[in-house]
């Protein structure tokens, strides 16, 4: 029952974010939509930031599942590296309110909004990515954080700038170039990288 209330709150907040953005989402509106008491709301989410972290975590769970599916469907290293970048940009484009919240929330606030299930799913996602990289020649050096920064970092920064602009453009317009750049950055980290040149 208790986790049901938490889920109701997160789902209600996610709906509001999708409809009007995080900036216009009030805790009172979320509480009413979720049908919970003030006590329940503040028990699970003592701050607006904590709720924001939980909303991002819920959205990221679906997104990470889609990215994992892209890797599993990839027919080679280059295809996998590029498809993840393109899929990531499509998610940011298609769900702009959540993307803005995701790109502006400090990592420590995001981590504080993760429940144990979300933490486990997040860890599983990164384990899956690391396994895929190892299957395709990554030795574990440099570390996964560096590989991910090279792989997704430029697309992330491009999206952050576009979404912060008054009139944000289509993130897909640069997807092919960013995907090709990600491949050029990650390819040297994969042993025997003659495949997919």
Automatic annotation (TrEMBL):
<dbReference type="GO" id="GO:0003700">
    <property type="term" value="F:DNA-binding transcription factor activity"/>
</dbReference>
<dbReference type="InterPro" id="IPR009057">
    <property type="entry name" value="Homeodomain-like_sf"/>
</dbReference>
<keyword id="KW-0238">DNA-binding</keyword>
<dbReference type="InterPro" id="IPR050109">
    <property type="entry name" value="HTH-type_TetR-like_transc_reg"/>
</dbReference>
<feature type="domain" description="HTH tetR-type">
    <location>
        <begin position="3"/>
        <end position="63"/>
    </location>
</feature>
<dbReference type="InterPro" id="IPR036271">
    <property type="entry name" value="Tet_transcr_reg_TetR-rel_C_sf"/>
</dbReference>
<protein>
    <submittedName>
        <fullName>Regulatory protein TetR</fullName>
    </submittedName>
</protein>
<feature type="DNA-binding region" description="H-T-H motif">
    <location>
        <begin position="26"/>
        <end position="45"/>
    </location>
</feature>
<dbReference type="Pfam" id="PF00440">
    <property type="entry name" value="TetR_N"/>
</dbReference>
<dbReference type="GO" id="GO:0000976">
    <property type="term" value="F:transcription cis-regulatory region binding"/>
</dbReference>
<dbReference type="InterPro" id="IPR001647">
    <property type="entry name" value="HTH_TetR"/>
</dbReference>
């Amino acid at each position: 029952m208790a986790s049901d209330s938490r889920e109701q709150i997160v789902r209600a907040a996610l709906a509001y974010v999708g409809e009007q953005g995080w900036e216009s989402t009030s805790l009172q509106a979320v509480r009413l939509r979720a049908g919970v008491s003030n006590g329940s709301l503040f028990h699970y989410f003592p701050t607006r930031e904590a709720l924001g972290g939980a909303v991002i975590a819920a959205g990221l769970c679906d997104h990470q599942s889609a990215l994992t599916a892209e890797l599993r469907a990839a027919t080679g290293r280059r295809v996998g590296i590029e498809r993840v970048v393109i899929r990531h940009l499509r998610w940011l484009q298609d769900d702009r309110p959540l993307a803005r919240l995701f790109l502006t929330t400090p990592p420590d606030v995001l981590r504080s909004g993760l429940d144990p299930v979300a933490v486990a799913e997040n860890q599983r996602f990164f384990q899956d990515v690391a396994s895929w990289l190892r299957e395709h020649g990554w030795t574990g050096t440099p570390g996964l954080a560096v590989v991910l920064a090279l792989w997704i970092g430029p697309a992330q920064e491009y999206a952050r700038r576009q979404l912060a602009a008054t009139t944000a453009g289509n993130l897909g317009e640069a997807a092919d170039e960013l995907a090709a750049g990600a491949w050029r950055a990650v390819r040297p980290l994969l042993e025997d990288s003659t495949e997919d040149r």
